[in-house]
Every structure is written in structure tokens, then in C-alpha cells.
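Q: Structure for this?
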Amino acid sequence: MSLWLIAWRSIRQRGLASLLTAASMALGVMLVVAVLSIMGVIQQSFRTNATLGYNMIIGARGGKLQLTLNTVYYLSTPIENVPYDYYLEFLPRAKRDAERAQSLQAAAQEERAALLELQSLVAAVGGGPALEEGASLSGANEPRSAAAGSDATVPAGASGKNSAVGLAEAVHRLALDAADRRQLDNQRDGRFSQFTKTVVPVGLGDYFGPFRVVATRPVMFDSLRYGERGDRQYVFREGRNFREHSEEHGLFEAVVGATVARERSVRVGDRISVAHGDPDGAGHGEKFTVVGVLAPSGTPNDRAVFINMAGFYLMENHAKPLEKKAASPDAPRESAAEAEARVLAERQARSAVVHDQEHGFFQPLPVEQREVTALLVLTTSPTVTPGLTNVINEGGAAQAVLPVAEIVGLFELFVRPVQTLLLVLTGMICVVSGISILVSIYNSMSDRRHEIAVMRALGASRNTVMGIILLESIMLSLGGGGAGWIAGHALNVAASGPIERETGVSMGFFDVAPPVNLLELLGVESRLSIGISMELLLIPALVALAIAVGFLPALSAYRTDVSRSLGS
Amino acid sequence: MLLLEDVRKTFIEPNGHLLPVLDIPRFALERGEQMVLLGRSGCGKTTLLHCIAGISSVDSGAISLDGVNLARLSEPARDRFRAARMGYVFQTFNLLPAFNALENVLLGMTFARGKRDVVRARQLLDRVGLSHRSTHTPRTMSVGEQQRVAVARALANRPILLLADEPTANIDPANQQRIVDLIRDTCREERISLLMVTHSLEVANQFDRVERLETINRAVGLAVAAAAKSSTSIAAGDSGAAGDSGAASHAGAASHAGAASGGFPNALRGGGSGAAPPPAGGSPGIPADAVPERRREERT
């Protein structure tokens, strides 16, 4: 008969007291496990999600952490935007040319709409210069010299004609200036393209209910991978990825994350509209057609809506206002009539877009009027990342952030102290539970002294009876600890829903706290790393606690006066 | 086989005085021999058994079993020796309530050899007529059954000496003879020496050798004298120390036992020889510090 069995029988003999004592320990361990695993899984998920297929974020200058939280986790608010041109610097020549050509085409269509409007205006007032449509169109389609469109302001010469002619000229000139700005500056690779494997532009700021809307390109789901090893491809539970342009829905396609689809009851084929600025903001008029629903990925993307960036730009307030070129001191100031003409031209351009959408054909926004909130960049190699980061940060136009570094920094600064505090508190609960074991066993000693004396009389040594008491303490501690572990993980599962809703991080029953370096924990300086989960360290910790609290009653058993106790 | 020579043991009373309880010049028990030791309550019968078993240590002298002097062994060695070579049957059975009958028998094996012999344990239970009760806990057994389990447990390690401390004291008369027969027959079959302490004359009359402790233990007379002196002090109005009451209780017990001893039949060999002369070392009036520290055992 093993000493374990003897100890177990003794525990069973005092069933209720043992149960309460173990329950006390279970409570303590449950809290420790819950804190460890919740904090650990969140930490691990933060780190894992910080590499959703990219290792660098480019955004407007400002807070690095804010840029990271906003871009990776869709928390906080965007800092500012960066020009679309900056995005083009990450593209190779062929893609840049395609973007520019698309932009020129858009400019030509815009100009054409303006000219048609101009002709109708001239006809309405009955006079003015004869305008040849074909000449204007050809002029717009060809690259123009810088000198031809260097002045974007309306010339003062309009003041010598009647108002209709002046209005027509102003509108004409505006259209030509816009085309000038869209000329191909050169035919080359983007400055950072040779260091870029993948770049994904994102535009943030809109909401679909409480969920963030992410304007991006199909490359988001075609190229980016997620998961701890960065090898998992996004899967569509329903439908497909959105397209840059589809025959059916044009530029207005959307994909929704799994959580969004579940909570908002969104399905493929639904048409959704998004709100501008905040969850309760005014809705845009344009509707996007949902063409895909993502399968749950356990990433923050589960909680987002992804729309085609080209469609995003066409929504109200998303076009960047064209900057007027700096007027020379000699240039005449814009008159009230000229300003009115300019506003009218811009309004006409908008109405043309809406008209196009209503009739099923769309034109993208010119490059100059586009901005992106951030660029998700996967560099060609980790070795180029630091250098690229320095170049971008020294450039002044934008900042480059390494998301993993930011997340780790955040944890070291804020989360780890909180975690340590919680661990200390829950550890103290365990110690109190341990003391309850001490009290329970010690109180039972007066009743058990006779039994111990009988064991001694049967040949058990002092060390044997001491060992039996220590084993009792260890069994109570480990038994309670095991129950606490199960309860703690059950608690994790129970809390998984709200945590996933808030952070996009999901937790399973068997998700344990992430490993820590055992050597570092023991204060051993070594290049070696022995990773072990903090939850596994609970086992030796509980045994040590059990021995510590069991020592006093064990010593009492050790010192039992057999002769006297046998007579009692 | 069992030989006690010049064995002395002294308790320290709460008032600091020494109380000699054992002073045995010589006592022997042969291999396979069965004997009964009679004595008044408080005359040191259980203490003597504890010293022989190695549960208590003696102040001086030698207790040899099969050539091994227990007095010279360390406490752990005595524990191992006791577990391996001796069996002990208690007056109150002392079965462990958390274990069933079979497990109680196996316990003794566990402490002696670290491994259990279930076959032997079952054989013993069968021999005491309890094979059908092997899975029952002591709480569900009668006192007679409990004592039979205790006998089986004492025999589990094939001892060479069985010490039985009033094994029939708490058993109804119907079962007393059965227990005695069981113990004697088993010891005879396995050639185990038996030293039984009892108050029962019916039991004692069945043994060939019966000794009165007073005849072999010279300290008994001193205890009686101390008790008498203490009684005198109380009668004279001496409130005394706390220990006086303890001495008085001894006196009462000794007087009662002494009266009882007057009823012993003359047929009992060695009986009625009265108190032995005072021992050479120690008396009720000797201060505690006169005895080496390691030999003291406080009695409360």
C-alpha cells in the first residue's frame, strides 16, 4: 500500500473539510489561470496579429502607437492621410503607369463633362467663343507641357466679356488645369518599390454600425497571409473577394468579416451603406454590394467591412479638394464670379459621378484627389526593413512603423505591470488558500494523533508519517489546483465571446498562457532559451506551496509522542 | 530470545520530581514461549510493553530480542526492527478507520517492507474468520471482529514476538475466549513468542507461565510509596503543586490495583510477593536535573 493511498484515504476520511480546502485552492488557481491565459492569449494574439502578412505600416506623421492600433486593430482614430502619390512610390513602373493612365482617363471624362456643360451654358446665353469639342478632347488626352497649365487660377481676362462667356472660360480652364496636373511626371519605378514585396493601401474613417470600414484593394486578401507563422490565407465562407471593377457592381463591392456578418446579419448580395466619420455619423448615399463573407480568422479583420477603395473615393467627402497653386504676387485675385464658377464646376463633377453610378458606369477619382490612411508593407527582406524605415522617417512626408515593436513596447509599458499586479494579487489568493490547507490539516492533527501513533507502532518511521502529511497537503493543493485549472479555462471560454467582440481575439479551452523563458525567469543569463508556459510552472509552484504549508502539521506528526498518544 | 537486563525507566512528573516506573533486573522469554503478565493498573505494564517494542526508550539497561539490543538502536532502526520482528495487539484494537479490514492488515506490511503481500493478508483474515468481511471498514464491524482484524494485522509480518496489551479487555465474555484461542493457536503454529498483559484471571489461568509485574519490577513499590506520601500531604491540607494531583491519582490507582491484586489465586506462580525494594537510582524525591537529559520523559 503506497503512501499516496494512505494519504488519499486520510483526505477522504475528512471529506467535507478536504473538499472545502481544495475548493479554496481551486478558486485561487482559477483566478491565476484566468489572468495568465487571458492576458497571455491576448498578448500572443496581439503579437501574432501584428504580422498579418506585413511588417511595416506607413502612415501620416504622428503617434506611432496610434497608427498601429488604428491600422492593425481598428482601434482609436486615424491620425491623418498621406497622398496617394506616396503609395505609388511603392509600386513598380508598370503598376504606376497603369494608375496614371487610369487617372488620365478619368480626367478626360471629367473634362468632357465640363465642356458639355459649358456648351450648354454658352448656348443658353446666346454667344461666346466657338468651342470645338474634338480639339478640347484631344488636348486633354495628350500630355501637356508644364507651361501650358502652370496657372490654375481663372485669368482676369474674363472680366472683359459678358458673364456667360466668362463662366464658360473659367470652367474650361479648370478642366484643362486638372488635366495638366495629371500628366505623367516620368516613367520610372517607385522609389521604394525595389524593397517592397507587397503593399496594400487602406483608407479608414467610415463605419458600418459599430464596425470599422476599411477601404482597400483586392490584394488585401489575395496576397496577405495571417497566423502565427504567417502562412494562412483568408478564406471566404461565402462568396468571393471584391474586384477593382466588376461588370455587375462596378466599383462598389464589399467584403465583410465573420463577426460583422454574424452580428449584422449580412449576407452575400446585400447592399450596405456606410457612415462617415463615426458610428453614428451621416450615411453616404452610395451603396456597396456584399460579394463575400470571410470565414472567422481570429484576427481583427473579423470585425471589419472591406470596400473597394476606388468606390470609397467616389463617396461624398472622400475626394481630396484640389489645391490651388500658389498665386504669384502679380496674378489677379479670384473674383466672386470666378469662385462661383469653380464651385459650380466641382458640383457638376460630383453630379456626373452620381449620374454615372445611377446608370451603371463609373469613373475612378483622379490620383491627385486620392489619399490613403496607411500603407501595409511587406518588405522583400527583413534586412532592408530598418534602412527603409529610416529613409521614410527622415523624408518627412510620412512615418514608417514596425507594428511588432510597437505592440511589444505597449505591453512592456502598460500591460505587463498590470499583468504583474494581477498575478501578485491572485498569487496572494493562492497563498491564502494554502494557509487554509495548513489550518485544515493542522486542526485535524489533534484528532489524528492517535492514528499517527498507531502507524508508528506498526513500524512507520517519523519520516514516513511526516511524508504522509506532506503528501496530503500536496494532493489537496494539486487536486484543488487541477480543478482550478479546469475552472479557469472554462472561465476563459465563457469570457471568450466578449473579448472577441471587443478585440477580435478568440480563446479556446486549451489555449494556455504563452511560454516564457525559464532561464530568464530563474535569473540565469544564457543565450539558450527554454520556453515553458507559465501555467506549467503552476505545478511546481503548487507543490512548493503545499510543502511549505504542510510542513508545520507534518512536523507536528513527526514529533508525535507515540507512547502517550496510544493511550489517548 | 527476549531478555531484559537492568532495565530502568523514569518519568518526570509535572512538579519536576522523578517517578521510577520500571526497574527490572532481569526478565526472559524463550522462543515460542507464551506467558501472561499480571499487574495492577499504573504499575507499568503498558510502559514495559512499549519499551520492549521500542516505542519508548529506556533510561538504562538492555532489551535484547533475538540477540539485537534495542536499547542501542537508533529510533528509526527500532521502528524498522519493530515492524519486521514484532507484532502488537492493542487493548483498543487501534484499527485505522479510513481503511477496510484487508487494508488494515496490509498497513503493517507497508511500513515493514514497503510492499504488501495480499495473499498472506487474506490468509490471515481467513484464519481469524473474517475473509467475508475483508472489505468492511472498522465502523461496520463488531468489537470482536475488530480485535480479530487487529490480531491478523499484528501477525502480518511473521513476527517472532507478539505483544498483546489486554486484548480481551474491551470484548464481551463470549468473544474473549475466541480471541485468546486465536492468539495462542496462531503463535503456537508459527512459533511466535507471546507476552500478554491482562487483568483477566480467566485468561491468565490458561497460561503455563504467569508473572506478576510487581515481582519483576522493583519500581512498583516506589510508586506505591510515592502515592501514599502524596495522599498524606493532601490530607494534611497541603495544596501542593499541580503534580500532586497527578501523584494522588497514581496513588488511587495503585491502591485500587493493590486491592485487586489481593484477589489473585495462589496458584499463580510468582504472585503476591509484594513491592520490590527501592531501586538504586532515583526516587520520588530526586530532582529532575539529577538525571541526564536524554533519559527523561515527561509524564503528564
